[in-house]
Backbone:
């Protein structure tokens, strides 16, 4: 309970909300309101990011315990408290949220032209919910934030989105809601079973095997949709295509990670037996996701759709890694999420850059951009390689570790998953070739300007991060490891007490070879 | 005697106003509205002043306890709110009749007595006092064909429901030999209920289900909601539901408290049916009043889920749910009353198109209320659903809870449709800007309540739990 004198997490969580309220109160002529709203949003999000950097700096990486813990009574009569804290697992997701929000705000500086005030407010409210989701240590509080995300996101897609925005916004909202409400039922059942909604307590609470199965499935319904896993991924391409650039960035960068985070925070530690029972199913679903969506990505004509399908494939590695329940697998899963958060966010920004200029996302309309957009081509290349998972970029570490974890548990699955790496390279390189090299098919493409100052400003940190994380993954891993190791130890212990021999899988895998 | 002072005061005030109205005629309708508002507020003060401890009066016909106290508090707040929503509307629609506020007042007296009934006879009398006043209110726009039709429908079906209720009461009386709640409860606790009592109870539940418009006794709701003047719809949706729910709780847990396994299955079916019908039937509605009618049917289903649980916690959750329902419905009707174009009320949801551009504050307020009705956190509606689901799950009613959450997703669709029309569609003409202060206040207060509820949820949740606990102490 150290550091309880500064409520750092609450500050970070609610600062954006305060900013949003402030923007709400701005009243003046239209242009002033727009300008002030942009700056207020930018400063708020940058300050929030600064706070999170301070948090990262003071985070004790050698400990697996929750840090910066805050606990206040909230719904006392029901034993539900306002309980916040971060550990190695949630730390970098918080960082990702605070890091991407200012970038999104800068990215929509010019591209969002209507109702700017509302847009900025929606984004700040979204940031509050995102940070809250990753910091909450009470299941009900988690649910409040987790579900609250839907409100601003629904408006962001629906108000500022493309031509089919209404359909996509509805699909996004209803799909996610359907999964979440089942989780709510499971959460209440868990609450009844354990008598508390405190996450650290729940993690140590043994649940009967039969109940675990049901609860696991209900939580899975929610997280699998959020992730999204095959076959419930269909909302994602629609949402991505119609969302404004910043919306896609935050959707790919942070919202998808809530599913993976949920698996790590709820499914594995609370229902270890069920997780083990369903692990094979999840791994096969992941493999299907990796191969199937990669193949779909190969034939896409729409850039955003292609990157959206590649997201599903990359998230497939994450679920694969997590449900190996090995240290490498889980660490790989987390790293893959962080890396994907940066790479795919940056790729959507890349799409945004050309879309702002030509108002088309059709790959066929571009080509030969390297001629007049050399800087853009360079940035795109680094990010593309990051997405492919070239050694030296952040994408490699995650994929490698998850596959390493997968090989330990199930060789067949790992074999199939590895083919995804090749497919991933295929569709990304193809995209790059068609857009950047070749003839300049469209006459407007020849007149497009290279990335400007504002765009450089947000691409530089993203590109640097992709490289730095690829070269020094230890920076992240050191802080993640203790928490993951504790998770795995507890998981194995729980299985041992339940009399399940985890090595069965290993032996089976050996036989099938 | 002090326990009944609020009712006596209100009834006397009503009689005096009635005489005044007859002598003075319709031109004093506005002052009459104000007077009734003042009398409601005074009654509220009396209610807060009197002792809420358990008291029985008039040969045990009348009971006052914390449960009755909280329900009366809700009823009075609801009455004041719905009258505030009405007064301007009456002028706009030219319903200048002094009977309007007075009928509301007498309905109010009936409702206050309903939640204090401790005998089936006083229950029936209170219910009829309320119902008769409501029948007349429904038909108050007597030269409008829709309003008259709605009034007749409401009356005929309401009378049928009262008949069913009375039949049930007579069966219970015939087999148990008493109408008193306590005596009945004690008798049923010692010996198992004779078949006649069980049948009678089912009839009583059916009659009361009509009053809260729960499936399968909901048929009147959409037509009546659509047909009657909007201010009356608001009143119907806000207050009588709360009173009837209070009455239902009292009847199920006091006289029939030991027959829980008998009525649980009945309420189970009613709750599930209401949730399903409320969610699916609303999908195809375009008239906003009709849509809210189905939404209220669905909401009753969620509230009944707490009763199915049959626990103190469940009843507390129902009371809390009804509070939230009242607040949100009042806000929604405030918005509907604001929907006027060129001095004419418009009722199609398409009329809301592009509201977020033309009248952003109104659109935000409505969106907050709708998201809350959907049960999306962090808004208040989520906590209402959370508590009833929790009560049901704690008692093992998983299937009911799962149906509940799934229908809430279906319901989310039609709420979202309205939000879509307001925020995503192209703007149409503006609504009239001359909205009365009272309506503005009601909408603002309810939206703010829903938005900031999360900061101090305990206050209000505990109020419901406290009220519920008294029913389980005896």
Residues:
């Amino acid at each position: 309970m150290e550091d309880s004198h500064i409520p750092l997490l609450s500050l970070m969580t609610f600062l954006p909300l305060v900013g949003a309220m402030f923007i709400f109160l701005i009243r003046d002529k239209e242009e002033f309101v727009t300008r002030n709203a942009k700056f207020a949003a930018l400063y708020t999000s940058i300050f929030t990011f600064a706070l999170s950097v301070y948090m990262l700096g003071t985070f004790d990486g050698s400990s697996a315990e929750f840090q910066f813990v805050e606990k206040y009574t909230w719904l006392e009569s029901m034993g539900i408290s306002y309980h916040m804290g971060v550990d190695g697992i949630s730390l970098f997701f918080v960082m990702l949220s605070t890091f991407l929000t200012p970038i999104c705000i800068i990215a929509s500086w010019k591209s969002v032209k209507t109702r700017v005030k509302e847009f900025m407010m929606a984004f700040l409210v979204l940031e509050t919910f995102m940070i809250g989701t990753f910091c909450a240590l009470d299941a009900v509080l988690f649910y409040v934030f987790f579900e609250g995300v839907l409100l601003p996101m629904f408006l962001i897609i629906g108000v500022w989105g493309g031509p089919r925005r209404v359909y996509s916004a509805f699909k996004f909202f209803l799909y996610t809601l359907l999964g979440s409400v089942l989780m709510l039922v499971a959460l209440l059942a868990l609450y009844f079973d354990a008598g508390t909604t405190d996450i650290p307590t729940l993690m140590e609470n043994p649940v009967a095997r039969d109940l675990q199965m049901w609860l696991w499935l209900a939580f899975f319904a929610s997280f699998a949709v959020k992730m999204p896993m095959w076959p419930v991924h269909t909302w994602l391409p629609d949402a991505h295509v119609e969302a404004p650039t910043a919306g896609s960035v935050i959707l790919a960068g942070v919202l998808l990670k809530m599913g993976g985070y949920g698996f790590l925070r709820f499914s594995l530690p609370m229902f270890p037996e069920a997780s083990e029972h369903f692990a094979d199913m999840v791994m096969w679903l992941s493999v299907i996701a990796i191969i199937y969506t990669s193949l779909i990505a190969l034939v896409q004509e729409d850039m955003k759709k292609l990157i959206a399908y590649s997201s599903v494939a990359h998230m497939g590695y994450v679920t694969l890694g997590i449900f190996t329940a090995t240290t490498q697998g889980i660490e790989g899963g987390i790293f893959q999420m962080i890396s994907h958060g940066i790479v795919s966010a940056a790729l959507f920004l890349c799409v945004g850059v050309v879309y702002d200029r030509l108002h088309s996302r059709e790959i066929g309309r571009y080509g030969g951009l390297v001629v007049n957009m050399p800087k853009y081509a360079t940035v795109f290349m680094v990010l593309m390689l990051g997405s492919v998972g070239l050694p030296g970029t952040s994408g490699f570490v995650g994929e490698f570790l998850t596959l390493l974890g997968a090989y330990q548990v199930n060789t067949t699955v790992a074999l199939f998953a590895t083919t995804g790496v090749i497919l991933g390279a295929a569709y990304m390189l193809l995209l790059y070739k068609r857009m950047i090299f070749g003839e300049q098919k469209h006459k407007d493409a020849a007149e497009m300007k290279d990335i400007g100052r504002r765009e450089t400003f947000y691409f530089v940190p993203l590109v640097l991060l992709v490289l730095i994380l690829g070269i020094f993954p230890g920076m992240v891993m050191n802080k993640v490891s203790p928490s993951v190791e504790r998770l795995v130890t507890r998981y194995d212990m729980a299985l041992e007490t339940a009399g399940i021999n985890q090595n069965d899988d290993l032996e089976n895998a050996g036989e099938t070879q | 005697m002090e326990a009944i002072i609020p009712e006596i005061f209100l009834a006397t005030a009503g009689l005096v106003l009635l005489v005044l109205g007859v002598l003075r005629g319709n031109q004093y309708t506005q002052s009459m509205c104000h007077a009734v508002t003042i009398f409601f507020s005074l009654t509220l003060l009396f209610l807060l002043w009197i002792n809420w401890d358990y008291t029985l009066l008039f040969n045990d016909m009348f009971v006052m306890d914390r449960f009755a106290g909280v329900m009366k508090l809700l009823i009075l707040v609801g009455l004041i709110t719905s009258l505030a929503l009405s007064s301007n509307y009456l002028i706009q629609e030219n319903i200048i009749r002094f009977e309007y506020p007075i009928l509301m007042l007498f309905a109010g007296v009936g409702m206050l007595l309903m939640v204090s009934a401790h005998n089936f006879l006083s229950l029936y009398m209170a219910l009829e006092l309320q119902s008769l006043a409501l029948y007349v209110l429904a038909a108050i726009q007597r030269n409008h064909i829709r309003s008259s039709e709605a009034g007749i429908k409401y009356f005929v079906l309401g009378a049928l429901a009262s008949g069913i209720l009375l039949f049930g009461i007579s069966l219970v009386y015939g087999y148990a030999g008493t109408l008193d709640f306590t005596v009945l409860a004690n008798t049923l606790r010692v010996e198992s209920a004779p078949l006649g009592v069980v049948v009678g109870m089912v009839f009583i539940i059916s009659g009361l289900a009509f009053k809260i418009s729960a499936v399968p006794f909901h048929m009147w709701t959409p037509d009546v909601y659509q047909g009657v003047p909007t201010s009356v719809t608001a009143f119907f949706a806000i207050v009588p539901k709360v009173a009837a729910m209070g009455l239902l709780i009292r009847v199920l847990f006091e006289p029939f408290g030991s027959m829980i396994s008998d009525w649980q299955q009945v309420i189970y079916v009613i709750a599930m049916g209401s949730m399903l019908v409320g969610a699916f039937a609303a999908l195809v509605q375009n008239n906003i009043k009709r849509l809210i009618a189905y939404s209220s049917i669905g909401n009753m289903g969620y509230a009944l889920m707490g009763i199915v649980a049959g626990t103190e916690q469940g009843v507390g959750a129902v009371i809390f749910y009804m509070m939230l329902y009242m607040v949100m419905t009042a806000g929604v009707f405030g918005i509907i009353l604001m929907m006027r174009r060129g001095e004419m009320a418009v009722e199609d949801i398409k009329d809301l198109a592009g509201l977020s551009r033309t009248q952003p504050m109104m659109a935000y307020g409505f969106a907050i209320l709708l998201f809350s009705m959907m049960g999306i956190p962090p808004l208040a509606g989520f906590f209402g659903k959370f508590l009833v689901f929790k009560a049901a799950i704690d008692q093992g009613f998983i299937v009911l809870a799962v149906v509940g959450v799934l229908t809430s997703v279906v319901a989310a669709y039609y709420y979202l449709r309205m939000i879509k029309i307001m925020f995503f569609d192209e703007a149409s003409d503006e609504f009239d800007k001359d909205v009365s202060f009272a309506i503005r206040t009601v909408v603002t207060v309810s939206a703010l309540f829903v938005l900031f509820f999360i900061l101090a949820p305990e206050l209000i949740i505990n109020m419901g739990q406290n009220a519920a606990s008294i029913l389980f102490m005896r």
User: Anything to note?
Assistant: Chain B is about 75% helix and 0% strand. Chain B has a mean pLDDT of 90. Strands of chain B lie at 55-57, 62-64, 340-341, 344-345.
